[in-house]
Request: fold
Amino acid sequence: MNNCFFKKVNIEGVSHLFVCKGRSRIVNAGKVEDAFLFKRQLYASLYKVDNHILKVCYGQSIPKDIFRKYALRSQAERESKSAFILSELGLVTPKTYFSAFSLFPKMRKGVESIHEMDFLAGYDDLNPNFVHRPDCLGIIRCFGRDLAVILNAMLCPKDFGLGNVMYHPGEDKLAWIDSDLKKFKNKETLSRTVMGKLGHRFLNYLDNCQADMFWRSFCENSILYAEKNELLSYGKIDYSKNQPGRVSEDKITDNSDHHS
Ligand SMILES: Nc1ncnc2c1ncn2[C@@H]1O[C@H](COP(=O)(O)OP(=O)(O)O)[C@@H](O)[C@H]1O
Ligand SMILES: [Mg+2]
Reply:
């Protein structure tokens, strides 16, 4: 709790008392204007000022001892730490400057914590339709490489899925956002967890040729899995339903985007 300070911040007309760490441009003024609203999600609102995003996370379960629990484990703190770890691994992820947790989350519209990060200029949301893009093989190659890098560190994002990956058209680059990393000690548990998500949140959208590209890139970069079957054996994937250039309607909505 070193270098923490208290600050009152008014978010959309409601005053919150936060325990803060770091330097924020947006909350400096003590007021987050409605006009800055960039995206409103189920569990978060994002505000954008110039090249900065302030993410306001809503609590889904409020602990009894807020000070003890949130100092290290607020949603904002977990996302900031995870982003730092991913950037250390060489992946693209927004740099976080500031995080804070609310001292009275229950009484203040459920605002649990906030953090401020870089706006990823030039990056677009990735949704299942990306398989129709002319540059989709580049995206898939990048996805395979980035996932291998994450798994090499025995980590897996809890909310892994297309909804938390952005891409840079033309640059063959992916950015990983909204990361809440879980550390694994055991390869088998990691494999099970990854396959539980990878199948229906990514692999099921791919046809055979695209899946080959994914596995080639994944295995080339993986130090944990030399063969695709080593990981694939932990989950069932049926590519035969996925014809090239066709994504069925029930796959268009990627439901990965909720916090655990
Ligand atoms: N740093 C960022 N730069 C640009 N867009 C962002 C950034 N962070 C989030 N977004 C946009 O906001 C959306 C929701 O952000 P996310 O952190 O995933 O919220 P949630 O926790 O509600 O899933 C993303 O899908 C993306 O479009
Ligand atoms: Mg998300």
The pocket of adenosine-5'-diphosphate (ligand 1) is lined by residues 39, 41, 43-44, 46, 53, 55, 94, 117-120, 125, 164, 177-178, 257 (CB under 6 Å). The chain has six helices and 13 strands. The chain has two domains: 5-118, 124-251.
